[in-house]
Specification:
Elements: E1 7-8, E2 17-18, H1 31-49, H2 52-70, H3 81-92, E3 95-99, E4 105-106, E5 122-126, H4 133-141, E6 144-148, H5 149-154, H6 157-164, E7 168-171, H7 178-185, E8 190-193, H8 215-224, E9 227-234, E10 240-241, E11 246-247, E12 251-257, H9 270-297, H10 301-306, H11 313-317
Parallel strand pairs: 3-12, 5-8, 5-9, 6-7, 6-8
Antiparallel strand pairs: 1-2, 3-4, 9-12, 10-11
Helix pairs in contact: 2-3, 3-4, 7-8
């Protein structure tokens, strides 16, 4: 039923989540506009995939040398050259993130990362929208990302830099076994996967959650007894949209996190663990997209910021914010 507060419940005892209404699919540009947009997108990606990795490497080396001499703490964007490149990409594309839990909107370098993420040990489950996710999400999670060989190859030197910095766990679809993937992930304290199995932006119902398809990756989480944290970010396809031939330089993302990780130790079977992930995925998805709808359709970004994230997991569920429950 739908309550007076706009919360969707399957039964009275379940946790309620904001309703998400599927907007009409944005029409794909046609003719000349699509060709020009695709050309611009290709040039943009070539710029970040070819010369900019070397620029990022130089900035990283120079900055780290200065920090070593001055004794200042190394910020997240300077931990590896890959982090530096990702930060430059996000800042260059004018990306800001509005966080549902903190109520803060920022485009600052370290502010784009999930608050408290460095204390989390486990696996991040994130939604997959477009090619740009391979930059946005590893930077948000400050971790390695599981990516197909084709996705790494298309990013040219950027993909190579990610591999050298141990920020990309590369697999070949149909060839890499689940056991091999599990072995590659063991050396990472934290890594992320896209359990939907494919990029969904621009497809029918893409703004609505679907059943988690990455069963192999989920079984690896279960067998390795790692905690799983669900993070959903809306609007990522507005940075880069390869289906529509578009690259943007002024994008606000809307992020929601689960109130706490889903822990294999709290479930007797994989089926129970999988069901808990599904429920958490849908609840977190609803919060992220409801926040986007509230802010963009109602023009209420400023009131939301003033309220300090009133739709947060902490305020709605009476729990500690996710950043304090990650350990």
């Amino acid at each position: 039923f739908v309550s007076a507060r706009g919360l969707v419940c399957t039964r009275p005892s379940t946790m309620c989540a904001p309703a998400v209404h599927a907007p009409p699919i944005e029409p794909k540009p046609s003719g000349l506009w699509f060709a020009l947009g695709m050309l611009f997108l290709v040039l943009d990606q070539a710029f970040w995939g070819l010369p900019m990795p070397f620029v990022a490497l130089f900035i990283w080396a120079t900055s780290r040398a200065i920090l070593a001499l001055t004794g200042y703490e190394v910020p997240l964007w300077l931990v590896t050259p890959w982090d530096t490149l990702c930060c430059m990409y996000l800042r260059g594309h004018g990306v800001r993130i509005l966080d549902a839990d903190t109520g803060a909107s920022t485009g600052a370098a370290d502010g784009l990362a999930i608050p408290g993420i460095t204390s989390f040990r486990g696996v991040l489950l994130m939604n997959h929208r477009s090619w740009g996710d391979f930059v946005v999400d590893p930077y948000q999670g400050h971790c390695a990302v599981v990516a197909r060989f084709a996705a790494v190859a298309v990013t040219c030197f950027a993909g190579v830099l990610g591999r050298l910095c141990s920020r990309v766990i590369m697999i070949e679809r149909g060839k890499t076994s689940r056991a091999q993937l599990l072995d590659m992930c063991r050396s990472h304290d934290r890594y992320l996967i896209f359990p939907e199995g494919t990029r969904r932006a621009g497809t029918p119902g893409s703004d609505l959650p679907v059943a988690l398809a990455g069963v192999g990756g989920l079984k690896n989480i279960w067998e390795s007894r790692r905690d799983a944290l669900v993070v959903i970010t809306a609007n990522k396809e507005r940075i880069v949209n390869e289906r529509h031939g578009r690259a943007s330089y002024n994008t606000t993302l809307y992020r929601a996190r689960a109130a706490a990780p889903v822990r294999p130790s709290e479930h007797a079977t994989f089926e129970e663990f999988h069901a808990a992930l599904e429920a958490t995925w849908r609840e977190t998805w609803a919060r992220a997209y409801a926040l986007r709808d509230e802010c963009e359709r109602g023009g209420r970004v400023a009131p939301y910021l003033a309220a300090g994230g009133r739709n947060s997991a902490a305020s709605r569920l009476g729990k500690t914010p996710a950043s304090k429950e990650m350990m």
